[in-house]
């Protein structure tokens, strides 16, 4: 499938965009129970444990972090596939966690999800036309008047697939083409927000670039806002206006892509970035690789104080006693420039040689 050449990374936004989603104090705890007949709760998996962010119109927020840090749980909460334990998700000012019935259905339409695995997320027994048109069965109020089949063909065309493929089955497509089908289904109801959970992780590198280009083109065409989840830091930098780094259920650092990638102040972000292979041999020779020791603790037994302290190369006694808040650290509060961004560390400091 021919795609235009990879465009340059988008310029950073001039100012805060109009908020589409505002997430405050978002929590999802899964109860841990014991006993067969008489179940009693003995603890909780704190998958998401107090997440705050704002997503602006037409903006892409990248979310990164190691496996198990709660990225997919955040995605499911945003798309109402899971109910939060606490917190609010405001869509255009309205708290959608309190909605139910018809009001919830109307909001759900505007926030769609694109899944990681194009092989298992499409029903193999349905034709591509039925898969893409399925949202119209669930939301007939938002279905196009008249010929739905024609609309489905248009969607195939929009995502760069031949409209004549409408009667084919998922197994007749490559991985990249299947992800395009998943994206077409996500677009069917003309949503405002797309939550993409590792949308290119299962694809070959060459195909990844095509799907990213497609997402960028669709964002411009339809003024979409994206929450883009991935563990590949380079891809996240390419597509994101702002980035949130997650660790054990919380955002530990957030800012524009320049702030996070060129001026990280949280030791966890610095460690993640130091592990990204540097293409430039000069940069490679001069940088310190930060090796994280130990495993990520279980979200059912989160460390006291700073939850990163058991693996942090800078941890001190105070880190076990105080929970660092996600805010501009005191030492940078009056600083000018990209170092002054939110970082949940009691000893936040710039470290230049992580790139
Ligand atoms: N339904 C559930 N019941 C209990 N625990 C769960 C459930 N869903 C997720 N978890 C746990 O919550 C934590 C966060 O899971 P999540 O899938 O959100 O992580 P992730 O960041 O998406 O990881 P990955 O990068 O591997 O996809 C994990 O410890 C996971 O085992
Ligand atoms: S608060 Fe302490 S343990 Fe946590 S990231 Fe900062 S230095 Fe490390
Ligand atoms: Mg996940």
Largest sheet, spatial ordering of strands: 6-7-8-3-9-10-11
What is the top-level CATH class of the largest domain? Alpha Beta
Question: What is the CA-based Rg, rounded?
Answer: 21 Å
Number of helices: 11
According to CATH, the fold-level topology of the largest domain is Rossmann fold
- Give unreliable regions as ranges: 1-14
List each distinct ligand once.
adenosine-5'-triphosphate, iron/sulfur cluster, magnesium ion
Give the biggest sheet: 7 strands, mixed
CATH H level of the largest domain: which superfamily? P-loop containing nucleotide triphosphate hydrolases
Structural class: alpha/beta
Roughly what percent helix?
Answer: 25-40%
Distance between the termini: 34 Å
Strand/helix succession: EEEHEEHEHHHEHEHEEHHHHE
Q: What is the molecular shape? A: globular
CATH architecture of the largest domain: 3-Layer(aba) Sandwich
Number of individual domains: 2
Report on this model:
- The longest helix has 18 residues, at 205-222.
- The chain has 355 residues and is an alpha/beta fold.
- The two termini are 34 Å apart.
- It folds into two domains: 19-35 and 42-240, Rossmann fold (3-Layer(aba) Sandwich); 264-354, no CATH class.
- Strand 4 (86-91) and strand 5 form a beta hairpin.
- Residues 1-14 have low confidence and may be disordered.
- The strands form two sheets. Strands 6-7-8-3-9-10-11 form a seven-stranded mixed β-sheet, sandwiched between helices. The protein has a four-stranded antiparallel β-sheet with strand order 2-1-4-5.
- It has eleven helices and eleven strands.
- It has helices at 71-78, 101-108, 128-138, 148-158, 175-187, 205-222, 233-239, 257-262, 267-274, 281-286, 318-321; strands at 19-34, 40-56, 60-64, 86-91, 94-95, 111-114, 193-197, 225-229, 242-247, 250-256, 342-343.
- Magnesium ion binds at residues 71-72, 197.
